[in-house]
Amino acid sequence: MNPTTPIHRAPDSPAARQALALAGVFQAASLVDELARTGQVDPRAWETLIEATVDTNPASFEAIYGGHPNNLRRGLDTLEALVGRKQANPVVLRYGFSLLMLMNKLRTNTGMMDSLGQKLTRIQGQAEHFGPTHENVVASLGEAYQETISTFKTRIVVQGDPSLLQSRMMPERVRACLMAGIRFGLLWHQQGGRRWKLVFQRKALRRALDSLN
């Protein structure tokens, strides 16, 4: 992340904070789709997700996503589709809602939460040594996802180019993205986000998105 990026104070509005956290979930979903189809990924969006996941003790809410809402722009744009303002990519929406469902399963499984917390603490030390987006760190995030979230009966089946999905480091990168989606899903829940609100409080989400544009 660019160290000169100014820190924009996070909004006090619970709805706006929920929107930012939810944007992280759908940014992860969007990048999983992009990786699976093209093998490439937007660097700023990718770095934001990975750095948020390895920083297990952020200094502030805004520090989680690098201090500027535009670091979550891909996810915010996807939310605009969710509230009906833009054309939605059904695959990305499916990944995003699946991540929220898996987050809820994880949240109620204290043993897995503890195990994942320990793994992420170790990975944070690795990130401090190699740098957050180093392939060793990405591989460790992917392994942590595989050993925890992937053991649920409900799984995310990623669609894409089979040859790309089997290429070097691609499974790890996809799983690291999914782990980031879980991380932002937990943040969304901590900020008061709930699935039913996405159905019954769309106006509040629209207003929150307007405040972040």
Automatic annotation (TrEMBL):
Top-level taxon of origin: Bacteria
Subcellular location, record wording: Cytoplasm; Cell membrane
Membrane topology: Peripheral membrane protein
Keywords: Cell membrane, Cytoplasm, Membrane
Main location: cytoplasm
Pfam families assigned: DUF489
GO cellular component, one term: cytoplasm
SUPFAM superfamilies to which the protein is assigned, alphabetical: YcfC-like
Family designation: Belongs to the HflD family.
PANTHER family: HIGH FREQUENCY LYSOGENIZATION PROTEIN HFLD
Stated name of the protein: High frequency lysogenization protein HflD homolog
Gene of this entry: hflD
